[in-house]
């Protein structure tokens, strides 16, 4: 029988029907309010309006240079921004219109994107629990997960919604979430998270990675990954193919073929920092070069082996990753490890970051702020100048920043999606340096708070 590919909407509807007989918890039903943040005051009561104008919006317009061509400041000005049908329609001279929403001089930036997080399994929104490390390393943690997942799943939709609200409070309106696919939870983690995202669809966006946390072959996860790949997920994931599955090529060949068969991207967790880690990176580069359809949609998460290499080898690997268009999504910082993020960026490697685990059985840290991550990166890599600090904003937005490297304004432009954060800062450099407070968040034109 030929498998039927389900759209995300169909998958959510079927999942909701399957859960209909279950005991409902707060947040399990589809919300009618678009998942707005109750603890923030809405911008002047304009929530829900499809067309409106912001006034007194601070935008970056260029760099100020000294006599030697060094950037010494960022030029800014106040503008009015007209928003309609989820897009930025017009940018004009500042308005005195009494009906316009007053941004009160806050700096407008692209809303932030958390590009590596696990929304499906968290203690956040529930009772505090610190990490309980067991014996056996990652495989020991897999055994722990197999024990606790049934309990975690009981209210995972509600906790995912609470975690999304934490991200929103820090200016994040989009996330790439890895979601467990393995024999213990089967596709239940995915179903529960899809319900949470449906509840928040008017205020938060996401792309999902089918994540074989317990290995592809170490546990019998293959049939569940194949089933998940038929749904409207975005990426096929993986984790440490040598140390977990004991076979780099077998696991990677399966992952690559599954992604190709279903037109998905790839995002592999790679913690291995020795020879096996380097071999995995090199093999993935080889497979992507053999299958150009995967260029620009393949990523390595963490990839700590890059931080263990000599500088010459780091440069070589950065060049190869850049040429293959394989991105790196790395944690900042990680213990005493310094990842070669500047070297990667210099070689056209897309580098992104995220909060990873927030208050779960793997990690008790995490504020939910990718702006804080960008600030940490600036500190780690000595980016203390106006120019250097402003470039680190890329890590928080995972994409556009207001000024290009020459100081030309490249965002916002009419026609851009109205995904906006308003910050209490005078410029991007200050926002990064001081981790400036977030005043308001707008997603697809919808005023979240």
Automatic annotation (TrEMBL):
Pfam families: Amidohydro_3 (PF07969)
CDD domains the UniProt entry points to: Bact_CD
Keywords of the record: Hydrolase
Domain of life of the source: Bacteria
Entry's Gene Ontology molecular function annotations: hydrolase activity, acting on carbon-nitrogen (but not peptide) bonds, in cyclic amidines
Domain Amidohydrolase: residue ranges: 221-449
Keyword Cell division: no
Alphabetical list of InterPro entries matching this protein: Amidohydro_3, Metal-dep_hydrolase_composite, Metal_Hydrolase, Metallo-hydrolase_Enzymes
PANTHER family linked: BLL3847 PROTEIN, CYTOSINE DEAMINASE
Protein name, UniProt field: Cytosine/adenosine deaminase-related metal-dependent hydrolase
Organism: Sphingobacterium detergens
